[in-house]
């Protein structure tokens, strides 16, 4: 019997993606857990494992196609995978006579029908009214029977959806596979897949004024648009400052060869990550998320720093996890690795999750200052512009001196962070860059 492999739920906020590569062909035998697809989601290329075992009979999609959660990808003959798959599909007569129907979700069978021949039971089962949608039983976690076929319930399990949450559109509230797909997309879109805010105003017909062309959003651009729309709901404040990095630049150049021997490149970004961790420890409200529903602040006890990476597909923000537990050279090496994976479309989904604070460095491109947008649900982001030599007054020598100054731009959620705290946080970072010895005094 042919069984469809459908795209399963891959993570929060992911409703599908673009099929980059199919790793199997018709006639191949696949095992459950074997990687069968490469799927480009909003910001990562993922390897998708099979949830079924058997011999592939047909493939329903082509490389480059858009595939949503719950869409059929290929069908397999599970009988070719061995006895276990065959045993999973019980004969219709056996299902009809099953006494445990209420607990497995089957339609209940009348007691008198239990002694009737299998064919009579099947006819009676078809004629019986379909029960109402499942509802919790008072005083416990058990549920009433679900009006859905075994294949539909199995489909819901494969994509990780609780069928109890699905409302059936069939006769008597019966649930179909299309109902399950609709519910899955509804849950994913409400969890962050769609843009928020006011609907976009209709645009004029620009072709009336001259030649135009259109360019469809890439997955990354679409995700960035949605995320920035959500992030802009927070009331932003941006604080500006400058750090004198003349001395630390000398140290960076001095120890760069040692960092290269350990597989990394010692950059200002790597140094800033260590400084940011120290600042988050001193100012814990910056390492938090705002829970408006419960009117509370979630203070995090871990230190994961996201770093914005410019790629040809758009902006990605992979995360350095547990940055407080890593040496400066280890962070430098990891930075190079995650940047390379991001540019080569090899970033794993887990690398894009769990960030506490984001760092975006535009110094390599240019500019004097900018106002970065907080990457919600974080509450702050640090932007860095291009450093340059400036005359700075030295009180001790009573003269101007050329110093290498680094522009810093801190944006934060004003619902969580007050202006004075924002200024203190940014000044701490500037002073730590100017006098790294101060970090040892803080710890």
Per CATH, the superfamily of the largest domain is: Chloramphenicol acetyltransferase-like domain
Per DSSP E runs of 2 or more residues, the count of β-strands stands at 19
CATH arch. level architecture of the largest domain? 2-Layer Sandwich
Largest beta-sheet characterization:
7 strands, mixed
Mean pLDDT: 79
In the CATH hierarchy, what is the class of the largest domain? Alpha Beta
- Count of helix runs: 12
Decide which structural class fits the backbone. Answer: alpha+beta
Helical proportion?
Answer: 25-40%
Q: Which band does the percent of strand residues land in?
A: 15-25%
Shape: elongated
Instruction: Kindly report the CATH topology of the largest domain.
Output: Chloramphenicol Acetyltransferase
Please tell me how large the radius of gyration is.
29 Å
The total number of structural domains is 2
How would you concisely characterize the structure shown here?
The protein is of the alpha+beta class and 443 residues long.
Characteristic key phrases:
443 residues; alpha+beta; elongated; OB fold (Dihydrolipoamide Acetyltransferase, E2P); seven-stranded mixed sheet; 30% helix; Chloramphenicol Acetyltransferase; four-stranded antiparallel sheet
């Amino acid at each position: 019997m042919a069984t469809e492999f459908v795209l399963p739920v891959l993570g929060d906020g992911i409703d599908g993606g673009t099929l980059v590569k199919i790793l199997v062909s018709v006639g191949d035998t696949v095992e459950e857990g074997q990687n069968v697809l490469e799927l480009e989601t909003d910001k990562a290329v993922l390897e998708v494992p099979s949830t079924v075992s058997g011999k592939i009979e047909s493939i329903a999609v082509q490389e480059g196609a858009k595939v949503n959660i719950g869409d059929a990808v290929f069908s397999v003959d599970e009988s070719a995978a061995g006895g276990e798959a065959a045993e999973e599909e019980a004969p219709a007569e056996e299902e009809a006579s099953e006494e445990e129907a209420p607990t497995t979700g089957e339609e209940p069978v009348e007691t008198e029908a239990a002694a009737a021949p299998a064919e009579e039971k099947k006819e009676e089962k078809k004629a019986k009214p379909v029960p109402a949608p499942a509802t919790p039983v008072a005083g416990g976690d058990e549920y009433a029977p679900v009006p859905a076929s075994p294949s539909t319930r199995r489909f819901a399990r494969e994509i990780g959806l609780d069928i109890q949450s699905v409302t059936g559109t069939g006769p008597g509230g019966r649930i179909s596979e299309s109902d399950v797909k609709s519910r899955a997309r509804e849950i994913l879109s409400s969890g962050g897949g769609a843009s928020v805010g006011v609907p976009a105003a209709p645009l004029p017909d620009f072709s009336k004024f001259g030649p135009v062309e259109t360019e469809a959003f890439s997955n990354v651009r679409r995700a960035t648009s949605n995320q920035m729309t959500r992030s802009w709901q927070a009331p932003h404040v941006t604080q500006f400052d400058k750090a004198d990095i003349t001395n630390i630049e000398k140290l960076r150049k001095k120890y760069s060869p040692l960092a290269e021997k350990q597989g990394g490149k010692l950059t200002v970004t790597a140094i800033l990550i260590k400084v940011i961790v120290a600042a988050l420890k001193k100012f814990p409200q910056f390492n938090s998320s705002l829970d408006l529903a419960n009117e509370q602040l979630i203070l995090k006890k871990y230190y994961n720093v996201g770093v914005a990476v410019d790629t040809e597909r758009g902006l990605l923000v992979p995360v350095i996890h547990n940055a407080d537990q890593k040496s400066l050279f280890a962070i430098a090496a990891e930075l190079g690795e995650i940047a390379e994976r991001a540019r080569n479309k090899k970033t794993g989904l887990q690398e894009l999750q769990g960030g506490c604070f984001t760092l975006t460095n535009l110094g390599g491109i240019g500019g004097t200052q900018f106002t970065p947008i907080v990457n919600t649900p974080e509450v702050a982001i640090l932007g860095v512009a291009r450093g340059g030599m400036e005359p700075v007054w030295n009180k001790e020598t009573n003269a101007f001196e050329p110093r290498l100054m680094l522009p810093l731009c801190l944006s934060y959620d004003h619902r969580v962070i007050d202006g004075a705290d924002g200024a203190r946080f940014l000044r701490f970072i500037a002073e730590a860059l100017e006098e790294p010895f101060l970090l040892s005094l803080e710890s």
